[in-house]
Each structure stands twice: as structure tokens, then as C-alpha cells.
Request: fold
Amino acid sequence: MIHLKEIAVTFNPGTALEKKALNGLDLKISQGEFVTVIGGNGAGKSTLLATLCGEVLPTSGQVLIDDVDVTTWPVWKRTSFVARVFQDPMVGTCSNLSIEENMALASRRTLSRGLAPALNRHDKERLRHALSRLALGLENRLKDPMGSLSGGQRQAVSLVMSALAPMKILALDEHTAALDPKTGAFIMDLTRQIIEEHGLTALMVTHSMTQALQNGTRTVMINAGRVVYDAKGAKRESLTSQDLIALFHKSHGEADLLT
Amino acid sequence: MNIIQALGAAELGLIYGIVALGVYLSFRILDFPDLTVDGSFPLGAAVAAILIVSGCNPWLATLAALGAGMLAGVATAWLTLRWGILNLLASILTMTALYSINLRIMGRPNISLLGEPSLFSFLPDLCAHLNIPTYVVMPIVMALIAIILFLMLFWFLSTQFGLGIRCAGAGARMAQSHGVCTRTAITTGIALSNGLVALSGALFAQAQSFADVSLGTGTIIIGLASVIIGEALFHTRSLFVALLSCLIGSVVYRLAVALALNASGIGLVASDLNLVTSLLVAVAMILPKLREKIRMKVTS
Ligand SMILES: Nc1ncnc2c1ncn2[C@@H]1O[C@H](COP(=O)(O)OP(=O)(O)OP(=O)(O)O)[C@@H](O)[C@H]1O
Ligand SMILES: [Mg+2]
Reply:
């Protein structure tokens, strides 16, 4: 399904600021897997998602989705495969446009954009319905500017927006990190529902070891731009967050020795 | 100020209202400070004028002006999006190049269109027939043109494609992550913006019966002033009202200028206009910041 093949990403090559964010990372994800990604700050998790979504062009290596080499595809073209929820709801939604306009834009992610009206009555009903599952009362505020919503509400809407158009892969970068525990748990539930409903392949970056183990079918730890630990099935079942933290310190220690 | 002067000011305001629509599209919707307009306004005038004196149909000449303006916009967008040149600088490059290009197009610094056919050639006969003076009908015709263009722009920005453009301007990463090719969207937007400005230049040349290479100086500031006046008059979140307020802002601006120039007590002459307009725009931009500063002082 997804194959990130020997990916290397170097920022600012040849300058004093040169930074190897990914260092020969290799990751194969099969159809329907829900992978949680953990690792320390600066480990390369966001760069990994950015490479998958096309925001970062790898210095070497290939990105294959469904056996199609998409390495050089621009972001907008890859959206036919991948939907993304950003960590920052300000990035994932547009303050100046109304809620319904944001949603109308998202609902055509995989379709062409022509000269038909962006919003017709049929669309509005569909968008209202999609919003109502959040139970935040936002379905009555479709005309309000997105900027008038709180960060948590915006993140909830951006998750709904990602599911308005068909997709194969859902990429989530710490999408609950900015939320209070209650909203965070609610968004996490919704995320699970969406992934199950659509039978998606998903990648979710998180800093919470518990969240990483409670959700998904596989957990991958990244350090210094490489996969340092990979667990699924029975091996993962028996794992506790304590184990993960121990592994985390171990890999960190090794990385420190190396550099 | 007498009625003829007021109607003349309104007519000019409506012509420049189309510039304001273009400026609103680049500055406000696309967040792209585009100075190309200082070159695309005289470009439109030049293309229309030279084609008309060479015997071309005025409608075709006006359409050609629109196309030329769009090309100028594409040039600026290409410099920015393809080569990563800072948008402001890219637009200054195109604007500067257009000065030479406009001279080449016209072959001389100015062209008179007196006695030449124009989009408005039918007016004198019509006015004589209806027994209404031309200076009354001209602003009405211009208002019709401006309103049609405003409605077309509003319609376009409300389409699926137009929504993509609005989003590309407000948040490029978000737009891309929802499948909008931001390069196409921004290029189209900037092309459309400059097309409108050049069209306005072509209308100006035909209404005033001349084209001149130096017509463009200050176009961007006049456009911005109109946008800002419009925003001050109508605080709105509605795109429809915001676009309409550009036209109204431009007319108000021209009427205010005409008033100021005609009030003998102030002693302003036409050449002071650029200074006054720049001051107006600067003050309008400083005021919100001052207000914020004062509010912060008060709360702390
Ligand atoms: N655009 C960029 N330019 C230069 N360096 C970058 C850029 N983006 C990321 N980096 C560097 O690449 C490394 C990996 O960054 P990345 O954002 O992938 O980390 P992360 O695992 O997501 O960390 P966090 O948990 O803090 O979000 C970091 O050292 C970072 O400083
Ligand atoms: Mg990150």
C-alpha cells in the first residue's frame, strides 16, 4: 500500500545549517493498517508525514503509494490518495472563509474544480449533516467565519473536512496535541470511527505513549530519522507504555553515543 | 463644485472602481501586494488606443487590452511562483518593464483618440435623440459596465474554482492539502486582477479620448485608497458587499478629491493629489495599529 523506500531528507544541504531529518528511513505499510508513530522532538516524524504528503521532496529514495511512484508528485495531486489533518488547526482551516466554504472546498479534494457554484443547496444539506455528528452545534453556524471558532472546534471541523472526500490514507500529525483532554479524547474517538468506517490506512504521530498503544494496529518509533522500533500483533499487545518509555530512552542513548 | 464636475468625478470613480476590484483581488483575497497595476493600467490604454487608431473595432481593442493585462499578471505570478522572487519585487519588475513595453506599443508617449470610434461612439447620437446631455449619460453607462464586471467577478469567485483561488490566497498549505493547485489558482487570480485593471485603462482611454505612458503612476495607491475607503464605509464579511464597496469607495474617493480641488480655501492643485492620496492610505493603515496600541496601554 505505502512504501517509503530508503528515504533521506536533508534540509539546507551544503550550508552550516545542514540537517539530516530523515536518514535512510524505510517503512512498508499495508492496506488497512493504522500505524501510530512516536519519537522524540526533532526525530523526523513530521518530516516523515510531509514526505508522504508531498510537502517535502526527499533528497533520495522513493515514495510508492499503491505501487505508483509518487515521489515527485506535488501536494495537491497526492490528495487523491492522502488526506491530512495538521497539528495546528489554524493551518488546516481557513479563518477568512465561512465554515461552509471551508467544507465545500474540502469536499472537492479529489474532484475537478469547475465553474459551477461552490455551494448549492444539496451540498449545504450534506455539509450540515456531516457537521452534526460532532454534536457541537456547529451545524447551525454554517455561515459563521471559521475564525470565530475555538481551536478545538476548528480541529474537529478539520477532521470532518478530511473525511468529506474519498481517500485511501489518513495522515495525522499530533492532531489532538493542542486540545484539552476531553476534546482530545472526543476527537480521537471520531478519528477511530472515520478510519473504521472508510477502511482507511492511517498514520498518526503522537507524543502520548498511551495513545500510541491504545489506538491502531501497529506502533513505530522514529529516532534520528530512522525507524528504531516496530511492533504489531501479539508483540504489541503485550507492550506497556512503560516499555515504550524504556525503549525510547534506550534508542536516545544510542543516538547520543553515535553523534 | 458644480453638477458637471460631480458627474465627471463619479464617472472617473467608476472607471477606477474596476481598478479597485482588481486591487482587492490581489491585495485582499490573494494577499499578494501586486504593483504590476501601475503598468497594466497604461498597458490597457495603450493597447486599446493603438488598435483603435489602426482601425480596429473598439470592442476587439478593449478585449485585446484585457488579454494584454492578463499576460502582464501571468508574468508577475510566474516570476514569483516559478522562480521564488519576492512577490512585491516581481511585480515591480513587470511594472518597470511595462513602461518600456507601453512606449513600444504606442510608438510615441501619447495618442489622441479625438474623433476616433470608441465603445461610447453611440452616445452623442443617443443623447441628442433623447435630449439628455452626454455628461449625464456617460456616468450611467460607466456604472452599468462597472456593475456588470463586479457581478461577473463575484460570480467567478463563488464558483468551485473561485473558492479555490480565495483559499489559496488565505492559506496556501490548507488549499494544497485539499487538492488545490495553488500555483494555477494564484496565477489565475493575478491575471484576472491585471486584466480588470487593463480593461479599466482601455475604458479610460476611450472615455477621455487619449492614452499616455505616464497614466499609470499612482494607480496602485488610488486603487488601495478606494479599497480602504470602501472597507471603512462597510465593515463586512460578505464578499458581495466587500466587492461592491470597492466601487463605492472609488466613487467616494473621486468626489472627495474633486471637492478638495474645488474648495478654493485649501489651495490644493491637481499635482498634490498623489501626496494627499498616499497620506490617506498611510493614515488608514496606521490608525488600526495606533488603536491597538492605545487599547493595550489601557488594559495593562
Ligand atoms: N523546513 C525545515 N528546515 C530546516 N530544518 C528542518 C525543517 N523542518 C524540520 N527540520 C529539522 O528536521 C528535524 C526533524 O524535524 P521534524 O519536524 O520532522 O521532527 P518531529 O519528529 O516532528 O519533532 P516534534 O516532535 O518536535 O514535532 C529537526 O531537527 C528539525 O529542526
Ligand atoms: Mg512534529
Observations:
- DSSP finds twelve helices and two strands in chain B.
- Chain B has one domain: 3-214.
- Chain B has a mean pLDDT of 94.
- Chain B touches chain A at residues 156, 158-164, 166-167, 170-171, 173-182, 237 (CB under 8 Å).
